[in-house]
Amino acid sequence: MSFKENILCANSHEYVxxxxxxxxxxxxxxxxxxQLGDIVFLELPxxxxxxxxxxxxxxxxxxxxxxxxxxxxxxxxxxxxxxxLSSPEALNEDCYENGWLVKxxxxxxxxEFNDLLSYSDYKEELE
Amino acid sequence: MVKQTYLHDKHIALGxxxxxxxxxxxxxxxxxxxxxxxxxxxxxxxxDVSHMGEVFVCGKDAxxxxxxxxxxDIAKLDYEKAVYCQLTKENGGxxxxxxxxxxxxxRYLIICNASRxxxxxxxxxxxxxxxxxxxxxxxxxxxxxxxxxxxxxxIMKKMGYDIxxxxxxxxxxxxxxxxxxxxxxxGYTGEDGFELLVENEKAQYLWDKIxxxxxxxxxxxxxxxxxDTLRLEAALHLYGNDLDEDTTPIEAGLSWSVPKDxxxxxxxxEVITEQISRGVSKKLIGLEMLNRNIARHGYxxxxxxxxxxxxxxxxxxxxxxxxxxxxxxNNNKEICTGSCVQVMIREKLHDALVVxxxxxxxxxxxx
Lengths: 127, 367
Description:
heterodimer; A: 127 residues; alpha+beta; 3-stranded antiparallel β-sheet; 18% helix; B: 367 residues; Elongation Factor Tu (Ef-tu), domain 3; 8 helices
């Protein structure tokens, strides 16, 4: 199964991938990246920072505009994709395998995943 | 209803990402803003700027009438010459910025911003009392194509156009690819280039022809996204961002477009003359961020811990990779080229250097 087939997406275009019971990978969907265009700036949180579902945890800027990135589920940051900070334009190539933003430890219960969509449902909703 | 230019189908066929801009459905990018930007700086780009307004002003008093509307001295404008100017209010504030072209004896063309056509027409019509002049808004009948970049000249030559006797800021009637049009050597990119004013029905044919003939010179269609980064690198003002009704040409750093010796009266002359002799309370500066953060429209500017102004335009400069911005600040002598200010970005202050404008070497003035 590919990365994309396992992710769950928020309407605000973030995805979360469950790695095991507690640990998840969080990023932005390719649709979001395409809409933003050339990515030129990324600001990510620090390991240990905690956020509730819906909180702004990162900021991204394309040539045209600045956008906030929201937590798809509540969690504590366990790892940050620091490579992206020096070359945010890499997101235009890959926002999944190499282009994830943070890894988190999910801190609330699994109900938080209920309103997220599978990638195919998410794409369908965009049509 | 959102309007479409006569080239709308072309943009869709080219796979452009479309946005609503000033009431028009326009291409913001075809591939990538950065790529398109570099194409214009290195080769040539073709823009659809048909959303812009075209207003013809003719009649016995046309010169005197226009001279009343803008600080530039229209009486000194020669036949087939163009001049950049501002439509000013009584308080010196800017209603719009324009290029006025002299097409003939008492015959002028005004090209104005899409977002301001209605305001401009209102203002012009309201002031026309007592002048023998006819104002003809032809915006809906004309398309405007901009061919910009160092290879623009080669493409025009290849299309059989004799650029030999056409300097910057001049306009000439011409025939290209069998089409009658007006060719102006102007633009909004800081590069040499041409703007082609053509009847709507001929726009698609001309668009295709230029892209075809320009292929060997690396021409690409360019969207409004790159138009914005190109103009900002060249520190050309954008109405609504860097210019508005509460800002005078002097405050906007446009003194060069306000002749000191103009005899005729014009709207705002008193305020503007006073500002020239006594100085202004705010001024436009160029900024270069000292980290990767980008200053955007509306962000606050600080100096020595005090709020002194706000950013009006900002982006990453695709040519230099630096983050550049235009900002208005209090006219404090200590805030000058080389001084360090701070921009409030997401509740944190980030250092920025005050730098000279433009941010790049402009190459648009050709004799």
